[in-house]
Amino acid sequence: MEVFGVDIVGEKRFALFILEKGEERVVSKAKLFRLIRRFRPSIVAIDNVFELFESKEELINFLKNIPPKTKLVQVARKFSLPSLARRFGLNINPRNPMDEAKACAYLAKIGIGEEVSVFTDRTVITVSRNRSLGRGGWRQKKYMRKVHNSVRQVFNEIKSKLEDLGLDYVEEVKLGYGGISKGILIVNSPKESIPINSFRFGDVQVRVEAVEKEKVEFIPLRKSKPFLIVGVDPGTTTAVAMLDLNGNLLDVKSKKEWRCGDVIEHITSVGKPVVIATDKSNPPELVLKLKTSFNAVLWTPKEDMSVERKRTLTSGYRYLNDHERDAIAVAISAYNTFKSKMRNVEKRVPAGLDVDLVKAEVIRGCSLKEAIRCDEKRDERVERVERKEYPSVNFKVLEELRRENEILRRKLKDLSDEVERLRCKIVEMSKDTYERIRREKLIRSLQGEISELRKKLKERDERISELERLIDELKRMKILELSGWKSVKVLKKFTRDEIERLERDLGIESGDIIFIDDASCGGRSSAEYLCERGVKAVIVKGEMSHLAKSVFDEEGIPVIDACDLEIVESDWFALVKYDRFEDVYRRKIDEMGRRKLDKIEELLIEYRRRKKL
Q1: Are 70 and 127 in contact (CB under 8 A)?
Q2: Mean residue pLDDT across the chain
Q3: Which of 46, 95, 154, 378 has minimal Cβ neighbours within 10 Å of its Cβ?
Q4: Is the pTM of this model over 0.70?
């Protein structure tokens, strides 16, 4: 990690210390900025940022133009640089800018200081014209359309790139003649995570800018771990949920056969427990051990918590199993118990004190005054440590020791890797039988999967062959249609299921001609179903039932024998010679009309006969 230490020498001159090389320089501001862009250090550390920048605008402009992964760190904000240097064993001359630059670099290297933050985690990408459209002319509209179309193309390409990366964004578009004149994308991600830079090309310019914060923020490089309220659900599967003192869920985890030592290690990695809580009025052994290990306050309910109560408390949270749900519910219940006390602390604690530390002391049983006094004493102890004189440290010796430390760390890592490799080898040698069984099981599983895939592939090939055959038949049918033939839809059998299949696959519309290959098995309901669809005529092979035929006669739909027509058949369609069909169709319609007239005449004769009687 390369670190630059910077301190002001005089007007427009700065002392620069490059930690990795041990190099000292005195440079101008412009030269300093060029070196930062050239070497791309991880950290640029300075005593006070406003020694380097005269205004907030200059600071923002600098942070816009440096590499995105370079942090600007202000080392001395709460305490003076000499006191911080003494605290960490660095004896410097406060009047020597190079000494102060070195101290800034070393302190920032070990995590002392605060990162200067002026940008939010949002980025604005603006796509607009790169050229003026001119004063006008007979070709201006054509030129305007070309420019606006180019802007639209680049805008859509950037949108596609963001979608491929899975980045969330909001767009604003200003339409122009033939495209868009300006497009804005507001992306909910920091600038360094977006692989798009500002550029100008042809008719289009693209600006990529981070969204500025309302004020400059200082973020500590090393954050202290938060105080925790820990909910524990012990058992065969143990679950742990951790809230901070503001009620935010920081972590929830469950694990089978989770040992007490591992649970303690996991909790310590997240923060410092103040309260250990359980859902049992009589706390289990694991909970008591955790309470003792952390010297924390034990919280238990007056009676065992019900499942309904736990579900209510955790309705807004995500969890993997009931154990995690119970742990979250317990932590929330404990937090609610101390909530009013913590709100009171927030209102009454003076500015400058650690509010969470005071809350933790109040939860442990201290009064508010005692907790505040405890925090003030802690600050006094820090000041006394800062005032303590440390022996002088030679920077060259310190650098040599640091490098020697790095070499030893690498050797230690190599040895640890070798130990781990040998341990793994021993484990592998002792598990040869297990590996062989596992491999055979995997092979059987893969063979089964291959068989299943082959079966699916065969089914797919059969389906493809079927569709290819259908395409060939459709082509042949189309050729015949052009030479005076008409396509009709085919029913293999005159059943309700077959009719519904035809309707699902091809559809049955008003005016369709239906060819029934086997009409013997149809009844009244099947005929009524076709009549409701408004078919024009029905062509049948074989005998149709009297009931079905009577339904078609009542609806005026001719039933034509296939023997009276010229028909070419396939699986899905059939073709009839259209002029022959029209002759038979008209004849059937005429016959049906005559039968209706004959029936009416018979009714009239019967009516007259009865009237005479």
Answers
A1: no
A2: 85
A3: 95
A4: no
